[in-house]
Write a structure and sequence with these properties.
The chain is an alpha+beta fold. It has 17 helices and 21 strands.
């Protein structure tokens, strides 16, 4: 049995392979020539993207890191299974280098993070930066396993965020830069407009929309020169004890208590724990990453264009208030859209079924040069809006109902996209509506893997290769409340 980090995806592969070299990858492809094959990195995805009941390939032994120079520019050639935190350490050790962007957590493998569109704040996703990708697959003509180098055109745009469909990624090349300092401080705002205005001075900021206070705490961040602050070690200790551990222990308690306790904590206690206006300079990755992996959780993240952010957050406030049981008046336009989509009755029936305890994290992501990442297909920046629950695995049904309602409502209202690597309750029709480059992506995949050996039922159904075959997980979603775990082994 294989269980992901969140505990919400469980599957049983028939075979598990752990290659240590590219030759071993080619050998396993030869042995399993006619079978379905999926790869895993660190299992930090909350969707069934890596699930299989056939051949599972654990890539963690392919973790080399080599700094190279090409035409005066420096790159890192990185083994697909290299964990990002190890990559950051090796880049620093090999010459004070670092990555052009870093996601919120550093536990993922580099290939897994890129394959699902993992992003940081204020820059492009990791997928966007990949310049060369080496993929182990079978030659479409001879059928023999080969290492295919992808470095240009639609093939590269597809491979940057390929959801594992092109083959087994063995190595990626990503540009690197010299290590730098980031200045960080917190500030509270009552208006979203003021938070967004501050982006001009703090382009790396992320901010939190706090339920039941309905105000904003901005984590202002920008690149600076100078020295690391002498208070930086104490600030890191504060973060560890207060944010990474203390806040999460309190949330674990609140999910077991009535809604009133959440209101009291969020409105009166939590603001006292936030140190404001204390400006701390520290090494970039220390400020840009967090230790969210310390406590098991499940997450859904939606992406909306910058022009739709304010309206989306207004609706999110109304939705969460309504779900908590309070009376809410939705706008006439929103109500009309939801009625037209057949969602209004579902929304009304869901009143009083869910209380959200955790601050909603919001990050700006620049438009990617990819075919299928969440922030592609636009000249306009996107904002990622993240909803996290720390409910135990056997009590996730309320969160799953909320997640389905969230994406079902915000998609027709605001064109929201759901993160591929997080809880992703999309339908094939919604994917086709959201991704205008889907046919181009499918064409690349079919040219490299025409027989579909590197897809699983979830991917095949979602991207239209098996439009009439529904995964066990999606069938459960459509039938009603989700079970505590989604066993996709027979999908």
């Amino acid at each position: 049995m294989v269980t992901n980090f969140g505990g919400n995806i469980v599957f049983s592969p028939a075979v598990v392979e752990k290659p240590g070299t590219e030759q071993e990858v080619l050998d396993l492809l030869r042995r399993h020539r006619s079978r379905q094959i999926r790869a895993i990195g660190r299992l930090h995805s909350w969707s069934p993207v890596a699930a299989t009941d056939d051949v599972l390939v654990d890539m963690k032994l392919l973790n080399s890191v080599h700094v190279i120079e090409v035409n005066g520019q420096h790159f890192a050639d990185v083994g697909a299974g290299c964990q990002i935190k190890r990559l950051l350490h090796e880049l620093d050790r090999q010459g004070d280098w670092t990555l052009p962007t870093v996601g919120l957590i550093a536990e993922q493998s580099i290939a897994g993070a890129a394959a699902t569109g993992t992003h940081g704040s204020g820059r492009y996703s990791l997928s966007h930066y990949l310049q060369r990708i080496e993929v182990a697959c079978c030659d479409p003509v001879s059928g023999e396993p080969v290492i295919r180098v992808i470095d240009c055109g639609d093939e590269l745009r597809a491979a940057r965020c390929a959801l594992g469909c092109l083959g087994l990624i063995t190595k990626v090349r990503i540009p690197i830069r010299k290590q730098y300092l980031v200045e960080e401080h917190f500030r509270r705002y009552s208006r979203l407009a003021d938070v967004l205005k501050a982006e001009q001075a703090y382009p790396l900021q992320q901010f939190f929309f706090v339920p039941w206070r309905w105000d904003y705490f901005a984590q202002h961040r920008r690149e600076v020169s100078g020295q690391r602050s002498w208070l930086a070690p104490l600030y890191r200790l504060y973060w560890c004890l207060t944010m990474d551990v203390g806040l999460h222990l309190m949330v674990l308690l609140l999910i077991r208590l009535p809604h009133l306790f959440t209101l009291l904590f969020v409105r009166w206690v939590m603001p006292l724990t936030v140190i404001r206006r204390c400006r701390i300079n520290d090494v970039s990755w220390r400020h840009l990453t967090m230790n969210h992996h310390l406590f098991r959780h499940v997450e859904i993240e939606i992406f909306v264009k910058a022009s739709r952010l304010e309206a989306t957050l207004q609706f999110v406030r109304q939705l969460l208030t309504h779900l908590s049981g309070e009376q809410v008046t939705f706008s006439v336009a929103d109500k009309a859209t939801l009625q037209r989509e057949g969602l209004w009755d579902r929304l009304q029936q869901a009143r009083g079924t869910y209380t959200h305890q955790y601050p909603i994290c919001i990050r700006k992501v620049l438009p990617d040069d990819t075919l299928m990442s969440m922030s592609s297909d636009s000249e306009e920046a996107y904002y990622a809006i993240s909803f996290i629950t720390y409910a135990p695995v056997n009590r996730l049904s309320a969160f799953h109902r909320f997640a389905r309602l969230l994406i079902s409502c915000t998609l027709p209202l605001f064109g929201s996209r759901s993160h591929w690597g997080k809880h992703c309750p999309l339908s094939p029709g919604q994917v086709r509506e959201l991704y205008p480059n889907l046919d181009r992506f499918r064409a690349v995949v079919e040219s490299i893997d025409p027989e579909g050996h590197f897809r699983n039922p979830w991917i095949s159904r979602l991207l239209g290769w098996q439009p009439d075959v529904r995964s066990v997980q999606q069938a459960q979603l459509d039938q009603g409340p989700c079970p505590p775990r989604h066993d996709v082994s027979n999908a």
